[in-house]
Design goal:
The structure is a homodimer of 454-residue chains. Chain A has 454 residues and is α/β, with parallel strands linked by helices. The first copy, chain A, has a domain of 312 residues: Alpha-Beta Barrel (TIM Barrel), CATH 3.20.20. Helices cover 35% and strands 15% of the residues of chain A. The first copy, chain A, contains 14 helices and 13 strands. Chain A has an eight-stranded parallel β-barrel, surrounded by seven helices. Chain A has a two-stranded antiparallel ribbon with strand order 5-6. In chain A, strands 7-8 form a two-stranded antiparallel ribbon. In chain A, helix 4 crosses helix 6.
Chain lengths: 454, 454
């Protein structure tokens, strides 16, 4: 039997996310992103569609590569302003009961002790529905905002990441043994102090000498998401990630990436299926193909080209303001998202121009762009799953709320009719829903399990 | 006309707060502190009573002075576990419309750039109901948890605090000019980049070189709470605080402290009434005096003496496990809460023993302990207001939820009948409610206003 696919709503606490300028669409209500109702509605809709999660991106900094300034990004609302992703999760959790929440957080600017507490608290309050998308941060504007003069190099960011992970595993998995929490009113004992251990972590980047502040939450370690797709990034993902967020525009590229990640995971003693892989995709769906085409054209007309170039300049580290719109992009050295730079330069089949980066059909989509009626969209998405080995999709935000409503009302029933999408949520915390048969905690074969108290 | 008093519910994201062990009371439901419903109920009850705010304490670390170990604190659930206070605020905000939220956050372990964004996000999502209780942190366990080998000295903590405040004022008040946000769909402009300014802060402790990530929230700077009551702490409060949280066990001590803070505020160019002063108090109220006495005795019997000594050892830095219960406490040097140490040693009228620190009637209450029927409690509380100049009270958590219910059902109507408590919330964000006539932003005479773009 062909496997059921998984879907996340890909969103961000900002006026426009993957597609700059769509907040300008007359029917879009993204300007309400600062209000609780916006987030409650988003989560309710995604849960109505039995989505696995709301995956919250974050950009800690402002894109300032295009034209050498942040002006394009902030003028067009291209991931600017960028508000804290943590704070919207409780509003979404309160409005729902099952859906998970993947929160992007940059470990570079955190301390494990404080960070682990924040996630434990949220995992408690949501009944174990929290995931963490591990990112290391590459924006110069974030570094200078945080009082640092330089951004760590690409590989060093991952070295620091391994160090950070060891520290948080110790806090989440090792500090409070099973059975440490008594909560015994008659005995007058909340905790058995003999089962709470000081974490002693003295790594090259991070130091912790303290017990974890929070009692164990339903999942202990949140479900771990990761999106690195460079060589070093894939090693990191294969070791730590339980969900991987992949971008890629051809099935060949995606198939290779999926195989490489699963192969490396197995080399680390894990199972190939221990990693759920989500491919980024943009889907415009309508009852008929003609309506879908019209809708896609309408949306495309509202993409802000300068805003979009501000985004892709930020992701790549290449200043596209220096290029004519139809000029071939040369390979440039960059300290930014390496996979994206490779995709638009050395790995591209034909020369890419800035014009290719602006619209839905161009490489700026970073993944499949699918337009059609429910049957055609389902056909296309399932072909990606079946031919590449991905498990599902992170579906990009378009016009809010109508695009997500359309996915829930049209795509989900079509997939269900084909037996390729669940008809009810599984039981338990997010990890158990994603990995039926596993417990709510990291499996023994995951790197984090080694940090448990023996 | 005598002034209306203000009330906050004083709480913490932990099993027991000011009074260790009350989670063990048969009717107490503090064990639910990890669930959203606990917080929603708390906020709804406090809002039903027209409380000004829920004031959330935080202890970033574990008390480990008593007996030289953390065991007493964690065994008895004395402010351990200690979960993140931020994450419960959205659950409380969602359940209410008017009440404010004061969040204790230790600036020592934060960076202004990231911190300012978190508060701006929360101020947006709550419609301007956020306050920040500025603390500098004094626990060694927090420092070592954060990878630091030492705690800054008392005075240096405040120097760093002044530096931190300058940086966040620049972000909140100066980075985005009024009029910077256009949100103009027709024009395709979210922001006028000419009105967004890079914050350039290069202080002795904190550096920021970036624009603020968030557009201005309803209040911009959250309402600033502060609790320092040493000399240096009072200077800090007089300069920055809009609300001061004071402890003190005699009217003479409190009156002097109030006068000193207001005098210093005036010296900084502010008005005496620019600071709303809340006195910490523990109140047991019941329909009759006899019932209140019985209730207080019942509660007192559930205070965990070892847990309570773990708390006061932590606050004072003095290990009371080294004393017999009836042995006079000597003055010891400490890097902890200086005012508390002074109150139990040099400033005490008679020698204080550990036994005095355990119960409601002792100095462990750190402020008035009031037991009685509604008329008697109102008399006593109003006498403190009228004789010391405080504006109201932070009312300590006792047995949840019945103690707060009793305050709302019995104390509030009594105060209203006397014309000493509001009968409806004022309009607008928290700052406007606390300072009627002022705007939602810091007044021009506040230190933070100097950081606005001119």
């Amino acid at each position: 039997m062909a496997k059921e696919i998984r879907l996340n709503a890909f969103h961000m606490n900002t006026p426009s996310h993957s597609w700059a300028g769509l907040w300008q669409h007359p029917r879009d209500r993204s300007l309400d992103y600062t209000t609780p109702g916006y987030w409650a509605d988003l989560a309710r809709t995604a849960e109505r569609g039995l989505f696995d999660g709301v995956f919250l991106a974050d950009v800690f900094g402002t894109y300032d590569v295009y034209g050498g300034s942040r002006d394009a990004a902030i003028a067009t609302g291209a991931q600017s302003p960028s508000n804290d992703p943590f704070m919207v999760v409780p509003f979404m959790a309160q409005a729902t009961s099952h859906i998970g929440f993947g929160i992007t957080a940059t470990l570079t600017y955190e301390q494990p002790y404080q960070f682990a507490r924040r996630f434990s608290t949220l995992d408690h309050l949501t009944g174990g529905r929290i995931g963490w998308n591990i990112v290391t941060g590459y924006l110069k504007s974030a570094a200078t905002g945080m009082g640092q003069s330089t951004v760590r190099s690409h590989d060093e960011r991952y070295d620091a990441g391994d160090d950070f992970m060891a520290a948080v595993y110790k806090l989440w998995e090792g500090s409070w043994e099973p059975g440490a929490v008594l909560r015994d009113k008659a005995l007058g004992r909340f905790t058995d102090p003999a089962r709470v251990h000081t974490v002693s972590h003295h790594g090259p980047y991070y130091q912790v000498e303290a017990a974890h502040l929070s009692e164990p939450s339903p999942q202990r370690t949140p479900v771990l998401y990761q999106a690195g797709s460079s060589g070093r990034g894939r090693d990191f993902a294969a070791r730590h990630a339980e969900c991987v967020f992949l971008n890629g525009q051809t099935k060949a590229i995606v198939r290779d990436a999926v195989a490489a990640i699963r192969r490396r995971a197995v080399a680390f003693g894990r199972r190939a299926e221990d990693i759920v892989i989500f491919l980024g995709a943009t889907v415009v769906i309508a009852p008929t193909a003609a309506e879908a085409r019209d809708l896609a054209a309408d949306y495309a007309a509202h993409i802000d080209p300068i805003g979009q170039l501000a985004l892709v300049s930020g992701w790549s580290g290449i200043d596209f303001a220096k290029y004519r719109l139809d000029e071939a992009i040369r390979h440039e050295k960059s300290n930014s998202i390496q996979s994206f730079v490779e995709n638009i330069t050395t790995k591209a089949a034909a020369p890419i121009t800035p014009r290719d980066l602006i619209g839905f059909n161009g490489i700026g989509a970073r993944g499949p762009f699918v337009v059609g009626d429910p049957a055609a969209v389902a056909d296309e998405l399932l072909s990606w799953v079946d031919e590449t080995g991905v498990d599902g999709f992170n579906l990009a935000r378009l016009v809010v709320p109508e695009s997500l409503n359309a996915l829930v009302d049209l795509l989900v029933p079509e997939l269900q009719n084909r037996g390729r999408f669940k008809t009810a949520y599984g039981e338990g915390p997010l990890r158990r829903k994603l990995f039926p048969g596993d417990g709510p905690h990291l499996p023994e074969r995951h790197a984090g399990a080694a940090f448990r108290h023996r």
